[in-house]
Amino acid sequence: MQRICVYCGSNAGRDPYYREAAGALGEALVARGLGVVYGGAAIGLMGTVADAALAAGGEVIGVMPETLLAREIGHRELTEFRVVQSMHERKALMAELSDGFIALPGGLGTFEELFEILTWAQLGFHRKPCALLNVNGYYDQLVGFLDHAVDTGFLRRGNRDMLLVESDAERLLERFAGYEAPRVTQWIDQESL
Ligand code: AMP
After folding, report:
1. Does the beta carbon of 68 sit less than 6 angstroms from any atom of ligand 1?
2. Please, which residues have CB within 8 angstroms of residue 151's CB and are 6 or more apart in sequence?
3. Is 185 domain-assigned?
4. Shortest-distance atom of ligand 1 to CA 91
C-alpha cells in the first residue's frame, strides 16, 4: 500500500475530539509510510488531516473541482494539488490514486463518497479496503442501519462486512495491512427475480 484516501467533513464538528482524531489519523498514516489522498480543502477535518500529515513529513495529494476552489479554500501547501472538472472526476481520481479508503466523521459529501466506493467494491470494480473510523461513536447509527438492511434482506452480509469499522486509527491501519478482499458475493438475489 502506498496511499490511503481519507473522506471527511468540510466542517470540523462541535467537539474538539473530532479534530484530534483527524490529526491522529494523518500522523498514523505518515508513521506507516502511507501518503494521503483527499479532497484538497484547507477547511474542516479535511484541512486538519492534511496539516497533520504534512507536519509529520508525509505526502498529501488534494483533488478538487475548479468550481469548489473558492468555497472549500484549496490547501496551498500540499505535495500535489490536482484540479479536475467535476465531482465525478474528483472521486474517480481519488479512487485511482489510493490503495484503501477511510471515512472520518463528515456530512453528506463524506457519506456519498464512502457509499460510492463501497458500492464499487460490492460490484467487484476494486478490491481495496474501505473503512469507517468511528470517532466517539459518531457512526453508530449508520452501522446499525446497515445491519438493519442485512436483517431485512436488502444488503448481503458479505457486502456489509466489506466495510471495516474501528474506533482507533492504529488498529484500523493494522487491519488494512493484513487485508484480503473477500470474494464478491452475488449482488442480485436470483430468487427474487
Ligand atoms: P461534507 O462531508 O458534506 O462536509 O463534504 C466533504 C467533502 O465531500 C467536500 O470536499 C465536498 O465537496 C465533497 N463532496 C460533496 N458532495 C460530493 C459529491 N457528490 N462528489 C464528490 N465529492 C463531494
Report:
1. yes
2. none
3. no
4. 21
